[in-house]
Predict the 3D structure of the following.
Amino acid sequence: MAPSDWSTERALQYYNIAQWGAGFFSVNEKGHVIVHPMGQPGPVIDLMDVVEDIRERKIGFPCVVRFQDVLRARVKQINEAFAKAIAEMTYGARYFGVYPIKVNQLREVVEEILDAGAPYHHGLEAGSKGELLVVLGMNSDPEALTICNGYKDEEYLRLALLGRKLGRKVIVVIEKLSELPLLLRIAEEMGVEPMIGLRSKLTTRGTGKWEGSSGDFAKFGLTVPELIHAVRILKERKKEHCAKLLHFHVGSQLTEIRVVKDAVNEGARVYAKLRKMGLGIEYLDVGGGLGVDYIGTPSAQSGTVNYTMDEYVGDVVYNVQRVCMNEGVPEPHLVSESGRAITAHHSCTIMNVFGHIEIGSAEEIAAASVPQPNEPKVVREMRDIVQGMTPRNRAEAYHDATAKKEEALQMFKLGILGLEERAVVESLFWKLARGIADLNRGKKRLPRETRDLGDKIADQYMANFSLFQSAPDHWAFDQLFPIVPLHRMNEVPTKDCTIVDITCDSDGKIDRFIENDGVDGVDETLSLHALSEGEPYYLAMFMTGAYQDIMGDMHNLFGRVNEIHVFVDDEDPEDFYIEEVIPGDPVEKVLSRVQYEPAELFRRVKQALDQKVKEGAIRPKEGVGLGDFYEAVMKGYTYLSGP
Ligand SMILES: Cc1ncc(COP(=O)(O)O)c(C=O)c1O
């Protein structure tokens, strides 16, 4: 693309920022990515100012940046979307959202959601004993719900009932039938009235990467015969009035609105029938599943969603209302357990690019392009192929060059071609490949063999992060996350790149990206800027706020990432402040987790150093310095230190 065709507006469109950014991200005239933490119009934060602050404070990259205002905005957005739909459709009950803390359990995230959700009585959901301990400590609003999901033992049930003793609306969702008699027994022992939820295993199946959460063979929930059995148990014990909620969950990140409608219809029918059987159900909980648009195009392809939050909310309210009217039952309060939709946008991971791997560098190609006297025949022939390549014969030239490269390899193995000559053959081959990739760029109908040549020879940008720690869903599910340079957006990006992380794992790479210009698809490369010697280059991976932080692992002993929490400055809408810095794991912490005692490791290394000093191989002062250095690395960050 010609520099004259480029602008920051063009960059905004090229990286599809306005679309996946949901109004929270944009580009300013300096060519920097900016954040509108409260939506647009509103206060603005320049992400390069945040980078500067991180550098000044010597915090170190990679660094997770949380925009707590974005979190607050999303909580407000979902509650107001439900309130609006309920008012417009004169729906006869209310919405009580709950945040499933498994999506991101960080205390500051949960606190912010509760604080922003307080006017709406937004509650919490727990899926384990550990999470319930958190939730009981955090959710003290007697109007807000606490939903207890997941398999439960006696301890879990007692904990939930402890919440009832505190006067909280703690609902125990029965995931398997045997939990029901156990709950009733313990409740009686504790002298407390339980609030019971029943999870229905819907036949409607989700679509997308998490579709296994639903359908007849799903892990959780009661089948229809089991629901009937549960009604019988409740009636026998005269506890029908304790059944307060019907729950279902057909999968996270539902890609198609059709599935949402189907699931809500099926779930609402089950609710109506159970009501008619005499259960006192007041809440219908539609679970999670409200998706976010990681790509920026409203399509179910590439794992993104074909609907908006408003459409989702409208469909939930409308379909429940329609079924209730049809069945002649009261409209229940609506509950959703939306986690991803609330948290995904609020955090990003900033990383520095510290180098690149280039196949056939310009220098090597230039050197190989100058013919030398007495070159072996195979080199001369490769040179002829490269020189003779034209747009018309490029596929043929590629075939010939591939064969010639192979011939050179065989000759090398037989000892009749030297290493230098082999290097010339290979550099000429890459020269040809680059030439063909240039000819192919932007063209649609391409010879089959050369179609993905551009992707194969793309530069690999080395970024200071671990994919397994910061974006495990990309590795596990091919989930795409928007990745964008944070600066230089006023320059044309000229390099087609893939990104490699710093783990020693060949899976630690990103070679699937959102296609430029919002075309509905996936690209094997990302357009980035050429690296300039001595100038840092920063990228951010966006929309990592849901699941990624908490599910990341310690592959290669790269630990948790440094983290800052950024707020808009109330006094100055162009400024921000860092409210909190949470240091990432130091190496010693990660080592302790795999059972190494850092002090013992230090003692061993120190002993070896002392021995060398004794032998006179190392001077005493140097020995002390090396020991101090070992200890300092142990206390330092697990990632590369850098700009
Ligand atoms: C029972 C339950 N509720 C809620 C959620 C959160 O879903 P989401 O993040 O799609 O909102 C999940 C996640 O899979 C879940 O299993």
